What we know:
The chain is an alpha+beta fold and 312 residues long. It has helices at 18-33, 49-56, 86-110, 180-191, 193-201, 203-210, 212-218, 220-224, 227-241, 243-248, 298-306, and strands spanning 3-5, 37-40, 69-72, 77-79, 119-126, 158-165, 172-177, 251-256, 261-265, 271-275, 279-286.
Amino acid sequence: MSLITIDDFSYPQGWTDPKHSEERARWCCSQLEDGHVLFFERIPFDFPEANLHFLRTQQQSSSSLHKNISYRPHQDKLRGFAAEAREEVERLHEVMRYYSAQVVEFLSRLLVPYSPHWKLDFASFRPLEEQGRDLPLHKRNDLLHVDAFPGRPTRGGRILRCFTNINLTQPRRWLIGDNFPEIAKHYSIDAGLQKIAQRAATPAGALRKAFAPLQHLVRRRTAERAAYDEVMLRLHDYLKENEAFQREGTKIRTDFPPGSTWIVFTDAVPHAVLSGRLALEQTLIIPIAALMSPEKSPLRKLEEIAGRSLAN
Ligand code: SIN
Ligand code: FE
């Protein structure tokens, strides 16, 4: 993994120059798929100072019920805020709506090959100090992990996230781990890859999948999961549970300074956040068919090891 600084970016002219924008967009996508992090020293999209100020002065309760505030662009819904005055909630909603629209517009220029195909996922605002949070093991983000969403299976689609540290003085401190192929090679079998792959391929597993549309009515989330989603959820938990991996696994400490933005496939790049408060993040799901190199994706890497398809 390395941090790739995109420093000749100037909003908005830099990326609209047709001479190099397409070539550069393909290059950026390839770097991300190789497990690198694209890094911008300054916020590369429009973010009015008044909005920044509003977010920085939000006082969140320290309740562990809400790790963050989420915004669902498709439904235009805000979730996870502590009860505050109605005007404040409305303002927060407006700020999140604008942030999400701006970051997506920026990403659609930066990563042109993905944008016609991606699925817009949630955006979030993370107002709490990350250091010393008291969360159950599997919810702890200070332990190295790869991302997988229990409630939103991707069936092989990639989790791409764009983060911005809006703290004025404090960096957001991450640990970044080894490449996914290494993680998959060393840990996927122990985490249960073969068992899940075999279960999905048994007549009972196939039958369960065939009836998924019916189950869907009862247990929506489980029914939509492919074997891939089960493996990734298991790997997420397994890595957080594995003390030796946490202690001895390869990792690089990375400080994202105030005002910086970074983009990364968090389903493949192991990461942990050690400290920092006040970050924004937008998630996009990139379908496997839109990737520059689908063979480098976690789905294909895990299938290589399992020796069978995990897409069902
Ligand atoms: C995560 O582990 O996905 C969260 C990282 C962060 O909030 O900086
Ligand atoms: Fe994560």
